[in-house]
Amino acid sequence: MTDPHLAEVISERRQLINLAYRLLGSLAEAEDVAQETYTRWYALSEKQREAIASPGAWMTTVASRICLDLLGSARARREHYVGDWIPEPVPGGWLDGTESAPADPADRVTLDESISMAFLVVLDSMTPAERVSFVLHDIFRYTFAEIADVVGRTPAACRQLASSARRRIDTSRDPSTTERTDLVRGFKQAWESRDIEALVGLLDPQAIATADGGGLALAFLEPISGAEQIAGAWMDIAARGPAVTLRECTVNGQPGLVGELDGATVSVYAFDVADGRITRIWAVRNPEKLRPWSAR
Known about the structure:
By secondary structure, the chain is of the alpha+beta class. The protein has 13 helices and six strands. It has a six-stranded mixed beta sheet with strand order 2-1-6-5-4-3. It is elongated and about 65 Å long. The two termini are 36 Å apart.
């Protein structure tokens, strides 16, 4: 079987994974979506493929529809998930090279910002139609007419969905990378030295820490609120658990930490900061979500 579009089709894989990851918050599922999209492409007859003017646009539409279906069933699937579900963390550079349109400095959300853990968590609170409309329009620059073909609604309805989703995104603060790095480094040093007062000083009084073990790794099942409570919990982890080596790294495009035990990654920590303090900590310990980190 020949395919005159072979080079173009193959080059779309990274774009499909970039899109599906932002829609689903799971790299494993994003790779499955890309594979299913290719399967559907080659299920077409040669005549059908030749009739498609833009294979890339066709594949994006198909992948988006697959994601929309998966998002529709995600909440039901998570009813059986043990503890809180956190988006799958990705190492720095893992999603580089997207073929999407260049980000305009005036854009509300850049491609880099759109993979931050804080951003993905907000996306996860949206309805499937809101999420797809917002991501396709505000991040990947698709028109509402094109999005309507994916979501199955009118362009006007898709515009309203994206607008509703946009109101949930907080773009009022943008701490510098240096500030984020300094706070994460300070957290690491205070945790390693078991300095609870230093930890409390780095945390916002209303900070929240969430863990995801998925029932496959030890993790607290409910979010912990408050600087003193979080610092106390991290002191308990340091005192009771095995000696884990902490390493600074880039997690979803921002400064974070990786915990390693005997050379294997056992936890990944993402942070959000505001006004010189850490406001959110996401601790991912589910080994199924740490596959990209083990491959490094």
